[in-house]
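TASK: fixed-backbone design
INPUT:
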């Protein structure tokens, strides 16, 4: 995955130079440093979270929670990798999967999480993630406003995850393992490629030209425009990944697929 990461950095720099009309930005130290940390930041953050999780798993149970909370308190907001949000989200996902929260009591989860997530989503804004810079670390500085906002962002993510996953588990349980379900489930193997391609389509090109939060109200933007746009980008990414995967060399260099 190292080679595709550096190739993605180069291609992203080239795309930025084209969009901004400034070829010189490719050689600027600040731009190069930002690319080193920001390009595919999710994968880098995921790797760090995995290393932390493996390390914590070696610690006896009574101390695991204490060590995790200390990490969240002491880790200041890392703008490059968003560890303050990624680490609790990573651990929450492992916890939910291990105890099968998506499969068990999904009716109760739907009842609780649906109004909770929709309420949180109503107050969501474009700068909701930006305002979490202090994370739990803000408690050490007495920044309780940032702390409560940090909890709000996590609550939005956790409730939304439980809601969507429980809904799909319940839906699949009703319609059965049909051909359509099997076909959709195969898209999971394209996750890595989808993330890499959406970095260019969504995070770079669309974000450069389109400012949805300015054109539409937050409610319309979050409940209608973004879901439709996300679905369209998802389909586009899947088609592009399938096209790239037809060539083994390209799929290995660009997406990190070994076969």
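OUTPUT:
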């Amino acid at each position: 995955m190292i080679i595709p990461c550096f190739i993605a950095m180069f291609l992203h720099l080239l795309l930025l130079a084209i969009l901004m009309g400034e070829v010189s930005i490719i050689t600027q130290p600040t731009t190069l440093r930002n690319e080193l940390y920001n390009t595919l930041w999710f994968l880098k953050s995921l790797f760090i979270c995995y290393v932390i999780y493996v390390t914590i798993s070696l610690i006896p149970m009574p101390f695991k929670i204490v060590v995790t909370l200390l990490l969240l308190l002491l880790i200041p907001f890392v703008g490059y990798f968003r560890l303050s949000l990624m680490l609790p989200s990573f651990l929450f996902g492992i916890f939910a999967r291990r105890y099968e929260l998506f499969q068990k009591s999904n009716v109760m989860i739907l009842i609780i999480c649906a109004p909770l997530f929709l309420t949180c989503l109503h107050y969501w804004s474009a700068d909701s993630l930006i305002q979490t810079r202090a994370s739990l670390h803000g408690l050490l500085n007495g920044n309780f406003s940032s702390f409560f906002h940090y909890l709000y962002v996590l609550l939005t993510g956790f409730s939304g995850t439980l809601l969507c996953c429980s809904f799909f588990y319940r839906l699949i349980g009703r319609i059965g393992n049909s051909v359509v379900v099997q076909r959709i489930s195969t898209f999971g193997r394209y996750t890595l490629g989808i993330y890499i391609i959406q970095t260019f389509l969504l995070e770079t090109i669309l974000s450069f030209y389109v400012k949805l939060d300015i054109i539409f109200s937050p409610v319309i933007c979050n409940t209608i425009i973004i879901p439709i746009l996300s679905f369209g980008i998802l389909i586009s990414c899947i088609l592009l990944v399938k096209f790239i995967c037809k060539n083994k060399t390209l799929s290995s260099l660009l997406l990190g697929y070994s076969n």
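COMMENT: The chain has a mean pLDDT of 77.
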